[in-house]
Amino acid sequence: MKKNTSLWIIQGVLALMFLFAGGSKLVMTAEQMASPGPIQMPIAFIRFIGVCELLGAIGVILPALTGIKPGLTPLAAAGLVIIMIGATVTNLVNGPQGFAAVTVVLGALAATVAWGRFRS
User: Fold this and answer.
1) How far is the C-alpha of 70 from the C-alpha of 77, rounded, in Å?
2) Cα separation of 58 and 61, whole Å?
3) Does pLDDT of 21 surpass 90?
4) CB 60 within 8 A of CB 8
């Protein structure tokens, strides 16, 4: 019971973080999203990542909550881990490097959900 409660808390945190991150990538202008570092990503790619983050946020909550295809929850969490690996590398190369710590923590939380929901 304690494990299930912990996973739900982590899932809620992930959903809120990725709803915010993905939503902001969809509503911000190209100028607001321009990065100061050496690597400039196409706006279409950033918007694609935003859509993936929104879908991941929905995926870590909805299937487990409704009981419809609950096996999608660990897959959504695994997808968020992949996104966070890319975000960590991007932050380390492009800066700000401090954000890399945040992306590592979010990736670790997503990995915890992926593993915990896969095993249950």
Assistant:
1) 12
2) 6
3) yes
4) no
Nearest CA to 57 out of 15, 29, 92, 12 is that of 15
Residue-wise pLDDT tens digits, 71-99? 999 999 999 999 999 999 999 998 788 99
Q: Which residues contact 34 (CB under 8 A, 6 or more apart)?
A: 40
Interacting residues of 1 by C-beta distance below 8 A, sequence separation 6+: none
Q: What is the total count of domains within the chain?
A: 1
Which residues have CB under 8 Å from 76's CB, separation 6+? 55, 56, 58, 59, 60, 63
**Backbone dihedral region for residue 67 (phi beyond 0: left; psi -120 to 50: alpha; all else: beta):** left
- Full residue range of the structural domain in which residue 8 is found: 2-119
pLDDT digits (tens, 9 = 90+) for 27-37: 999 888 887 77
33 and 22 Cβ atoms separated by less than 8 Å: no
Is there a contact between 106 and 113 (Cβ–Cβ < 8 Å)?
no
Pairwise CA distance, residues 78 & 54, whole Å: 14
